[in-house]
Design a protein that fits this description.
Length: 85
């Protein structure tokens, strides 16, 4: 991979992470949950919730935990507008 392709891939990855964080925040607030509520549902540290919503990189494991907390499919995390919820 040349340097320009690598930079483009990194830029896209940052955008996906940022969009995921925004989606999680939207889902959390639309459910009327605080960050503490989400933390408890996921069984994670409060710092982790802030990192997720800030768009920090997420592991597959964390994506699965997020989907379970919201009772959704993991794939919905990557859809711009989650269907019917």
């Amino acid at each position: 991979m040349d340097d320009s392709a690598r930079k483009e891939a990194e830029r896209r990855a940052r955008r996906v992470s940022r969009d995921l964080g925004q989606r999680v925040r939207e889902w959390r607030t639309s459910n009327g949950w605080s960050q503490e509520d989400l933390r408890e549902r996921m069984g994670i540290d409060a710092r982790e919730v802030r990192r997720i919503e800030a768009g920090d990189n997420l592991s597959i494991f964390m994506l699965v935990r997020l989907a379970r907390a919201f009772d959704r499919d993991v794939a919905e995390l990557f859809v711009a507008r989650p269907p019917g919820r």
